Task: structure prediction
Amino acid sequence: MGCTRLVYNRALAARTEAWYEHQERVGYVETSAMLTEWKKQEDLQFLNEVSCVPLQQGLRHLQKAFSNFFEGRTKYPNFKKKHHGGNAEFTKSGFRWKDGKVFLAKCSEPLTIRWSRQLPEGVEPSTITVKLSPSGRWTVSLLVDIEIEPLPESPNQIGIDLGITSLVTLSNGEKIGNPKTFKAKHRKLRQAQKALSRKKKGSNNRHKARLKVAKVYAEISDARNDFIHKLTTRLVRENQTIAVENLAGSNLVKNPKLSQAISDASWGELVMQLEYKCDWYGRTFVKIDRWFPSSKRCGHCGHIVDKLPLNIRAWDCPKCNTHHDRDVNAANNILAAGLAVKVWVANIRPNRDTSKGQLRNTRKGQKQKPK
Result:
């Protein structure tokens, strides 16, 4: 793990220095040649004691990080830190799979693994990733290629409105509460962080205190992921069509009063899991344009109110006098818009200037700006 981190950081430093000092772009091929030279240096002879596969994979990951940066998807790559854990990826030539045991390259003994699940019969992994979390927990991920059988068709279809008090509100009226995993562990985390702040930097006691903080964060993450996995699996099994809003989480967390609650809700992870599970099991997943007024729109007559503050959780339509629960009404509107998108493959958003309260189609692939 340390060798992989060292090679990654050296390659990142070399690429950064080449650009800022000489305006030269260094790619994967050049860094791979650098790695060969590093192995010849006297102070880096220990790089020859480990498999070259995870070292080369680290350089490929760095190349992918730069590609994402140049295409505007991520920020500039950062250096890896020892206390953040790390990972080492082994492709087919870097490990041996025999009798259900994993033998990594240059290791005579198989990895001692406590299996969380068994691999399907007749399947061999193509990639193995060994990961160390900041809390000191080791995990092994095995990538296998299998065909997932689609679930039998269901007559149900659901619209989902994401929230904070109720994490998910369904168009059938069901509300699923937010477990608020961060808030549940906030006091324990605060105590662990205060203890860490009192420890002398570089001491063993500080290292122990840092592990305690990391373990609390791991508990929060594990509880959140467990809840979201169970929820998304249930929704995918029960419904044939699922419609959700395409929310911009990075913009929503800029609200200083709600940023912590929004981050704790983890809407992005929930939507991502729904999307790939629907793809696995043959379900239809639809994202609604984020500017569609799902909360302000009356699900009975289509009238759109001008303002609807967050503190108003129920309202009456001024046109048809229908009483609405804010979240349930939004979920029903999301489902209706999702069915329209499913049929028309349209981008749903009202045109406030010409046809207020109506649905308007746009050219495929063209992004609209709010008016």
